[in-house]
Amino acid sequence: MRLGAVVLTMGNRPEELRALLDSVARQDGDPIEVVVVGNGAPLPELAVPGLDVRTVELPENVGIPAGRNVGIEAFAIDGTDDYRVDALLFLDDDGLLPQTDTARLCREAFAADPALGIISFRIADPDTGLTQRRHVPRLRASDPMRSSRATTFLGGANAVRTAVFTQVGGLPDEFFYAHEETDLAWRALDAGWLVDYRADLVLHHPTTAPARHAVYHRMVARNRVWLARRNLPAPLVPVYLGVWLLLTLARRPSLPGLRAWLGGFKEGWATPCGPRRPMKWATVWRLTRLGRPPII
């Protein structure tokens, strides 16, 4: 199984980027072709021994999903829906693969289960080894060391079979940041693919707070509305969004954060969200059986 990797960077972490590429080069098995996308930033020389690295420089920051889509398209064959590789790793530019068998385990997992479309890695702090609860892509997140089926995945620590992109398309460009992984995962699940969370596939990444991004509250709320409008059967849209409104209020965000969230929530209803393709009711039941009914 041929593997590629997409790394998105804004050019502000050159040492971490170099360390990540070195960890990709150390992976067991066949070499991995890497595309590094400079999201509105020029890229330095990235020659790494034993690694085929190509670079794409974008003139402006187009957001995380659109930037990763550029990396996906770089693996397409002559502008078609076919790809030169069978699966793509998506890795944060300040992450690191501490084990040399991650690529091999991905190959084996995809080869063993033809229905497996997406693998979500476990993100662990390099100093403490701890995995934040928000990095376990399921509701029962108290034990990050337990692998399981999942209904979403982690954006900068995953592997996706390229046949998924051929069938359901890429990440939603419009989202810019937040919930783009769930949008792709729901479409993949609706098409019959499976998503796995694998605790034994580790990406080292420093512990961070999601609200470090200035646009966090607005983007999370706006994209939550877009996610529902794009993917859920009409009766579930108000239920899903009502639950999330109540959860947000129960978490008692700061007043500026709540204002930004409510502004994003309103924006999500007032602005175009891209094509609407509601999932089948069978997929709703499938998500429920997997432990994450699409009302929460």
Q: What is the helix tally?
A: 9
Mean pLDDT: 95
The biggest sheet amounts to: 8 strands, mixed
* DSSP strand content: 15-25%
Radius of gyration in whole Å, from Cα?
A: 18 Å
The helix/strand series, from N terminus to C terminus, equals EHEEHEHEEEHHEHHHH
User: If strands are numbered along the chain, what order do they take across the biggest sheet?
Assistant: 3-2-1-4-7-5-8-6
Taking pLDDT < 50 over at least 5 consecutive residues as the criterion, the unreliable ranges are none
Q: Calculate the terminal CA-CA distance, rounded to whole Å.
A: 36 Å
Which assembly state applies to the chains in this document? single chain
General description of the model:
With 296 residues, the protein is an alpha/beta fold. It has 9 helices and 8 strands. It has an 8-stranded mixed β-sheet with strand order 3-2-1-4-7-5-8-6, sandwiched between helices.
